[in-house]
Design the sequence.
């Protein structure tokens, strides 16, 4: 019997150092690479026939593509076309990491705040750079809501600025906390099953079965939320108006 | 027996729980906050994400958008062809209906002309018959009139002859022809 937190431990499988940086291949790296390989399998191997009438795997790839393409089209518009491959990669990477984390004995890279924060910070910095590159200093007008009296602006501008800088934190903590809480919950109830044994263990086991379904939904939902919020932030940077 | 099993289970549970607590304390809290693990995670996140980004942007997105465009083109082409075929059919039907209407109109005209000609000929024949009959009737009337005149003339002669005979018998001498004729004519006029 282990701690519910033990499943999140980083285990170095291969000790590596590149330019003095610890670049060890860990259990987290393993599942990131597996996610990339599986995503490549679906999106490249699945599309190998490029059939006009798609097969099963090609349909999956096309549905994923259309889903994110529609999201970018609806939320960013034409200006978002350039960033579509990035959003698609973001969504697919998070989705595959989340869902693969539901496999028993696997590891969920997105359950670590450093991973989700790195992605959120990349999105934040990227969006800010795009905003300034497209609009120059005019991008700062994002913090000034239109049609508001001057007195209120004294209050609203600081709020807008704070909410802007909170974005990478809310984005990363939302994903990390959902993964952490879900997996911890499953582990704790798994512990209950063992503790209560064959007589009383059925109730937490039934709960785990139901909760696993919910976790799969959350795995998808959090990838979706991450992608759509990135789209919304990108829309601010590309179009500037709220 | 059962009670001992329950007892053993309870003991096991307590053991497991305490072991869990100990393990928790031993590991020193959340693995997520162990900053020694940050560098390898970030390095491999960068590698994995970049790899997936390259795969997606260079291979997957062009392949899928190409396929979707091709499918869209095919569907649009098929729709256009269907639309054109539909249009052709509609114009064919219109031409057919126009021809049908023309033919019907022509047939009606022919029938009307034919009917008019027939009735005109019938009227002419009737008229001719009528005229012929009228001529025959007129001739017959003339003939009757002529015969009647003959008969009347014969009757007048007969009356004169009879009158003369009667007079000769009664008077014993021949009668004056002219006076007799005048008398007969007077009698005839009186009887009328």
Sequence:
């Amino acid at each position: 019997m282990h701690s519910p937190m033990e499943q999140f431990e980083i285990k170095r499988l291969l000790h590596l150092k590149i330019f003095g940086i610890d670049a060890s291949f860990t259990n987290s790296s393993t599942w990131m690479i597996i996610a990339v390989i599986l995503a490549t399998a679906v999106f490249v191997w699945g599309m190998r026939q490029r059939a006009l009438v798609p097969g099963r795997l090609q349909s999956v790839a096309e549905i994923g593509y259309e889903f994110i393409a529609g999201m970018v089209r609806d939320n960013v518009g034409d200006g978002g076309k350039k960033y579509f491959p990035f959003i698609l990669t973001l969504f697919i990477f998070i989705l595959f990491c989340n869902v693969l984390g539901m496999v028993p004995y696997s590891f969920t890279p997105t359950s670590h705040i450093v991973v989700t924060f790195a992605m959120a910070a990349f999105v934040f910095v990227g969006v800010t750079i795009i905003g300034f590159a497209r609009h120059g200093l005019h991008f700062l007008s994002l913090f000034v809501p239109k049609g508001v009296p001057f007195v209120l602006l004294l209050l609203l501008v600081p709020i807008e600025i704070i909410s802007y800088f909170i974005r990478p934190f809310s984005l990363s903590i939302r994903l990390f906390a959902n993964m952490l809480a879900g997996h911890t919950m499953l582990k704790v109830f798994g512990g209950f099953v063992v503790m209560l044994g064959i007589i009383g263990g059925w109730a937490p086991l039934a709960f785990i079965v139901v909760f696993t379904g919910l976790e799969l939904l959350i795995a998808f939902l959090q990838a979706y939320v991450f992608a759509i919020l990135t789209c919304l932030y990108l829309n601010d940077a590309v179009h500037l108006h709220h | 027996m059962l009670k001992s099993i329950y007892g053993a289970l309870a003991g096991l549970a307590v053991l497991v729980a305490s072991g869990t607590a100990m393990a928790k304390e031993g590991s020193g809290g959340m693995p997520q906050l162990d900053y020694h693990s940050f560098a390898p995670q970030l390095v491999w996140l960068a590698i994995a994400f970049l790899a997936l980004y390259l795969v997606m942007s260079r291979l997957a997105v062009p392949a899928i958008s190409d396929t979707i465009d091709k499918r869209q083109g095919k569907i649009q082409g098929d729709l256009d062809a269907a639309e054109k075929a539909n249009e052709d059919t509609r114009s064919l039907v219109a031409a057919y209906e126009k021809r049908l209407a023309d033919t019907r109109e022509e047939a009606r005209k022919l029938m009307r002309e034919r009917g008019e000609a027939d009735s005109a000929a019938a009227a002419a024949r009737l008229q001719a018959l009528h005229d012929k009959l009228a001529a025959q009737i007129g001739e017959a009337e003339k003939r009757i009139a002529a015969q009647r005149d003959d008969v009347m003339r014969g009757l007048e002669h007969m009356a004169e002859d009879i009158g003369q005979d009667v007079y000769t018998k009664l008077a014993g001498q021949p009668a004056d022809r002219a006076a007799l004729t005048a008398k007969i004519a007077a009698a005839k006029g009186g009887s009328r």
